[in-house]
């Protein structure tokens, strides 16, 4: 059964739904391979090649007159959820969990699922289905591997891919993290819009500034733009290795992200017994099983609004 997108949802991104499969090239040292059936070449840039695909999903809706009376947007955030084709069931949970969060007045928040190259034809067929249905997918030209440059491919491409409607902030998170977007946006509202690096901070030997754990971190748009142009990152091979540590290293060596905010303890790992949820959570990580997602959905009352009906009889949702 299909349910139409809820009209108010900031996650369903009508204006941005025209995406896409985008191939972004972190390093250009081998000859270009011909695009396969899913891919259409749109353009070259000086330092990177970009391929934009599958734009058929949705055209932006016509502008409505009322929009002119709405208050100006105060804050915009793109949330990139790094995931993999085979984690389709997980992605379905994560997507629904984001979609059921209340829209935030005065904020534009777009959630996108971020992939590297899709090589398997079955994966490609099913991902095309997801793209056409949800329009919230980014496919980058990288090899699927958490510590092999995917974060670099993501952070270094967003400033170009979304140059026409930039965000104030760009987040990288994972598909085993539940981000409570309103709580995160509240944190961001009072912060500077530039030179920001925010997340779950952890100290690295001798470094004066904390690094942000890979469960989820936010950089401001200028920082993402800097990553895209910082040739030094590639020269040092600093795209390879534990991604969160590498991002901290880039920023420290580049003198970037000096407005640094540690959201511990409001960002945390869920423990084994699943008894450390907190009401002021910004993000909870290690939701690696359906059981752990179920516990989170229950704790945060995500489905509490489900109306009673003769059409379904669900057991009490204890886990
Ligand atoms: C993708 O990256 C590979 C390896 O860096 C490169 O050989 C290829 O030309 C790139 N493809 C596109 C479409 O940009
Ligand atoms: C991604 O796939 C494209 C098309 O199949 C290929 O040209 C490219 O080299 C691949 N890139 C990487 C980094 O594997
Ligand atoms: C980066 O990696 C390449 C390929 O593995 C290697 O040839 C090069 O020397 C490395 N550069 C640095 C600065 O480590
Ligand atoms: C969930 O709902 C219950 C009952 O209304 C409430 O006591 C609790 O604070 C809510 N939990 C969160 C995290 O908002």
Quick structural gist:
39% of the residues are buried.
Descriptive account of the structure:
With 319 residues, the protein is α/β, with parallel strands linked by helices. It has one domain (75-299): Spore Coat Polysaccharide Biosynthesis Protein SpsA, Chain A. Helices cover 26% and strands 22% of the residues. It has helices at residues 88-99, 121-134, 150-161, 181-189, 221-229, 231-235, 243-254, 290-299, and strands at 21-24, 41-44, 49-53, 75-82, 107-115, 137-139, 169-174, 177-179, 196-202, 211-220, 259-262, 267-269, 283-285. It has a 7-stranded mixed β-sheet with strand order 6-5-4-7-10-9-11, with helices on both faces. The chain has a 3-stranded antiparallel β-sheet with strand order 1-3-2, covered by helices on one side. The chain has a 3-stranded mixed β-sheet with strand order 8-13-12. It is globular, with a radius of gyration of 20 Å. Mean pLDDT is 81; it is low at 1-61.
Number of helices: 8
Anisotropy-based shape: globular
| CATH superfamily heading | Spore Coat Polysaccharide Biosynthesis Protein SpsA, Chain A
What percentage of amino acids are in beta strands? 15-25%
Helix content: 25-40%
Write down the Rg.
Answer: 20 Å
Bound molecules: 2-acetamido-2-deoxy-beta-D-glucopyranose
Low-confidence parts, pLDDT < 50 over ≥5 residues? 1-61
Largest sheet: 7 strands, mixed
Distance between the termini: 26 Å
The CATH first-level class comes to Alpha Beta
Average of the residue pLDDT scores? 81
Which structural class do the helices and strands define?
alpha/beta
Give the number of domains.
Answer: 1
What's the CATH architecture name? Alpha-Beta Complex
The beta-strand count equals 13
Widest sheet, order of strands: 6-5-4-7-10-9-11
EC number: 2.4.1.-
Pfam families: Galactosyl_T (PF01762)
Keywords: Glycosyltransferase, Golgi apparatus, Manganese, Membrane, Signal, Signal-anchor, Transferase, Transmembrane, Transmembrane helix
Pathway: Protein modification; protein glycosylation
């Amino acid at each position: 059964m299909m349910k139409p997108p809820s009209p108010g949802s900031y996650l369903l991104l009508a204006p941005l739904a025209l995406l896409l499969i985008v191939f972004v090239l972190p390093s250009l040292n081998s000859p270009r391979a011909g695009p396969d059936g899913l891919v259409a070449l749109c353009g070259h840039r000086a330092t990177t090649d970009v391929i934009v695909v599958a734009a058929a999903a949705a055209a932006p809706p016509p502008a409505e007159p009322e929009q002119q009376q709405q208050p100006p947007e105060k804050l915009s955030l793109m949330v990139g959820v790094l995931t993999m084709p085979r984690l389709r069931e997980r992605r379905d949970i994560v997507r629904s969990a984001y979609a059921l969060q209340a829209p935030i007045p005065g904020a534009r928040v777009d959630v996108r699922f971020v992939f590297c190259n899709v090589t398997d034809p079955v994966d490609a067929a099913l991902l095309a289905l997801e793209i056409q249905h949800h329009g919230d997918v980014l496919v980058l030209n990288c090899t699927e591997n958490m510590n092999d440059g995917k974060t670099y491919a993501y952070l270094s491409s967003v400033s170009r891919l979304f140059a026409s409607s930039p965000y104030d902030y760009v987040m990288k998170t994972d598909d085993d993290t539940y981000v409570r977007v309103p709580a995160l946006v509240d944190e961001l509202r009072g912060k500077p819009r530039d030179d920001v690096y925010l997340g779950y901070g952890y100290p690295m030997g001798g470094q004066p500034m904390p690094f942000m754990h890979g469960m989820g971190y936010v950089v401001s748009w200028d920082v993402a733009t800097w990553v895209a142009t910082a040739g030094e990152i590639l020269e040092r091979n600093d795209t390879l290795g534990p991604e969160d540590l590498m991002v901290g290293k880039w920023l420290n060596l580049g003198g970037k992200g000096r407005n640094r905010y540690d959201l511990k303890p409001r960002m945390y790992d869920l423990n084994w017994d699943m008894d450390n949820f907190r009401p002021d959570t910004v993000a909870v990580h290690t939701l690696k099983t359906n059981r752990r997602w179920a516990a989170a959905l229950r704790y945060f009352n995500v489905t509490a609004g489900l109306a009673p009906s003769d059409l379904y009889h669900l057991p009490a949702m204890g886990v």
